[in-house]
Amino acid sequence: MNPLEMSGLELLQAMSEGKIAHPSIADTMPMRVSELSKGNIKFIVKANDRHINPLGGVHGGFACTVLDSATGCAVHTMLDAGVGYGTVDLNVKMLRPIPLGVELIAEGRVLNISKNIGVSEGAIKDNEGKLYAHATATCSIFRPKNA
Fold first, then answer.
1. Is 82 left (phi over 0), alpha (psi -120 to 50) or beta?
2. What is the DSSP letter of 49?
């Protein structure tokens, strides 16, 4: 399997099924895909002792990084093989502290996609739907020069 010959959705499916290695950020910020479709992704995430800030709570960077992954991967599901993306803008609202050692759901959803820009939103919630953080993102889409 050549990742460069796979659509974004195919690549993420192969990673979630263990057919190709997941990126190391999924170890740093423990997250695994639980649902995946075109324009949508859900991860199960859990902050651990590596994510503690000086005050003893979960560092805000945990939510920011997870939401960057959720919003970016949602855009990636819409892209053809050989097309890349990068986050240009990420706006995160942290609504309550992320609990330590509790599985949460991080969702990403595409709001709009064009030839050069993808706009998505993401949320971190618990199993009852309580919202911990919300984000919007703008991604620049990089197409091969001959496309």
1. left
2. G
